Amino acid sequence: MFTLLETVYHAFDELAKCRGVFKVETVGDCYVAVTGLPEPKKDHAVAMARFAQDYNVKLMRLVKQLEVTLDPNTGDLSMRFGLHSGPVTAGVLRGERARFQLFGDTMNTAARIESMGERGKIQISQETADLLIASGKKNWLNKRAEKVSAKGEGELQTYWLNTRADMITTRSVVPIGDSPQEDGEASCRMSCHGDDDALRKATYVDYPELVNVDEKVARLVDWNVDLLLRSLRQIVGRRGVFLGGKSRARPVSLLRPGRPSWRK
Amino acid sequence: MKEISTLPNFDAQSAQNEVDLDRIDLGEDVKAELHDYVATIALMYRENPFHNIEHASHDTMSVVKILSRIVAPSDIQVEDDKFASTLHDHTYGITSDPLAQFACIFSALIHDVDHVGVPNSQLIQENAAIAALYKNKSVAEQNSVDLPWDLLMENRYGNLRSTIYASDDELKRFRHLVVNSVMATDIMDKDLKVLRNGRWDKAFNEAQQQNSLEKVNCKATIVIEHFLQASDVSRTIQHRHIYRKWNERLFTEMYKAYVEGRAEVDPSEFWYKGEIGFFDFYIIPLAKKLKDWGCLVCRVTSTWITRNTTVPSGHPRAKRLWKP
Question: Would the pTM of this model clear 0.80, i.e. be above it?
Fold first, then answer.
């Protein structure tokens, strides 16, 4: 269990660093992260939604890898995700083991949203869903059929965020625009959760391919990449020449003559 | 925005030692990062009838075309070995600065990211959060610079970034060029327009031109901005079929906005008058500037402009309203 959590949390920390997501704490098997803090972020809800999707895929891949060295049932582990947005109070309470913490109703609601979720799924509160819809991400969401009753919150309407795997299989075009929102904070809470039935789809999908684009957009992407690559080669070519005369500070790798060059 | 971006001086040795581009391998990491980046940018475009990823791709194509067709004036005879140097001088360093060219293509790709399908004036009127954020100035354009730039600065694009620029100076130059280029696509802002025209006049029309370095860089910067403008409206300086296709999409987008209550006037009421005015007061002067300056593409396409202005075209609904 220790190795499992250590590996999973480490991977999440790396991903969080990469994506500008702020890790707040871990409580047992629960990982708490926030966007829009400590630096305000215009598209905090979208960033967190994307991050949760990536986490989900990452976890599925990790548990498959860990299955080899840990328990054979490790591969069946999955997580619940809960996302909520709203104002929080943040700070360091002076005293023993002082650390940066978040307080407020938003945090409680996030915890409820997480605990009322289902394994392998990302549950989103109405507030976060509103922010996503305002950013043109309506088709990332599926309304949860039944309302959930949360302790101290009454009945809540929540949404499921499409996982990356859903997006690939439905192959719908997702209009994405990260329009800035008023400053606020999105908080995300996830907790490890193990059950019997396996959640295997999307495990073998490679990360760079996970971006959902339809065929025409994919062609346009390839085409633009090609143009930019050619231009980049010119930059590198010119820089190589410049450096050739002075120093070889930045090596420019040239293919060996005779080897076919990369071309679409 | 910065008024002048500095482009590197002509380097005779580098011009001679041009490397065979096909032999340069950027490495799989850079390619993967670039692909991931462009794919994400594509997703950041909304599904508008006009301002979508296809429009951006059309723009990158046009910029690449324009860059490839920059020519020295035919009346200047130069020996072959001086050609590169003459072209460098004539184009104020643009032809021999790959970073500037990359910045142009990059800017074209990102210039309408997250465009919501209504003009800035409407965003301001609706008191959109984004309008307040950018203080009601070139709202969509600033947003279209910030989002892709923030994305590029994410950790996962480290290899890509170090390929684009290798020093702080290059980073600054790249940033200036991108900001200036994308902001240049805001053609409705009167202040920016006056400033830009003033800079063009200052760079090209003023008597007693000094050929100082600053002057050259000033010209280069303003010319690059005009490339982006021309690419943004490249539909109007291309074949009539292309013009009609994009013109219809633009109409559809504006009509959709009107139906949704996000525009005050039905575009079919002013479409043809508006288009003709657009040609008279924007396209033709712009094409003239670039033609006089020496961009071959504009010489060729000025014929298309003439043809595009002679016959009405556009949306079927508008067609019914057209009274010759």
Answer: no
Domain-embedded: residue B253: no
Q: In this complex, which of A180, A213, A220 lies closest to B143 when CB atoms are compared?
A: A180
Question: In terms of CATH, what superfamily is A2-206?
Answer: Nucleotide cyclase, GGDEF domain (3.30.70.1230)
Task: For chain A, say whether B54 makes contact (Cβ under 8 Å).
Answer: yes
Phi/psi of residue B19, nearest 5 degrees: -85, 145
A90 touches chain B (CB under 8 A): no
pLDDT digits (tens, 9 = 90+) for B85-116: 666 666 777 777 889 999 999 999 999 999 99
Higher pLDDT, A209 or A112: A112
Q: Which residues pair with B197 in a beta bridge?
A: none
- DSSP H helical ranges for chain A: 2-19, 44-69, 105-115, 126-134, 164-170, 215-245
Q: What are phi and psi of B130, to 5 degrees?
A: -65, -35
Angstrom distance (rounded) from CA A188 to CA B285: 53
**Average pLDDT over every residue of A230-235:** 90
Query: CATH 3.30.70.1230 spans which residues of chain A?
Result: 2-206
Is A220's Cβ below 8 Å from some Cβ in B? yes
Rama region for A202: left / alpha / beta (φ>0; ψ in -120 to 50; rest): left
Q: Tell whether B173 is covered by a domain.
A: yes
Asked if residue B118 belongs to a domain, the reply is yes
- Residues B271-294 have a mean pLDDT of 84
A258 reaches B (C-beta below 8 A): no
CB-CB under 8 Å, B24 with A236: yes
Report which of B71, B72, B38 is spatially closest to residue B56, judged by C-alpha positions. B38
Q: Do B98 and A43 touch (CB under 8 A)?
A: no
Summarize pLDDT for A137-172 with one digit per residue, the tens. 888 888 888 888 877 778 888 999 886 655 543 333
What is the count of structural domains for chain B?
1
Q: Do B23 and A231 touch (CB under 8 A)?
A: no
Which domain CATH number covers B172? 1.10.1300.10
Give me the residue from A182, A211, A236 closest to B39, CB to CB: A211
Inter-chain residue contact A221 with B45, CB threshold 8 Å: no
Q: B195-209, B232-246, B279-293 — which is least confidently predicted?
A: B195-209
List the domain range (segments joined by +) for residue B127: 12-187
Whether residue B267 is predicted with pLDDT greater than 90 in this model: the reply is: yes
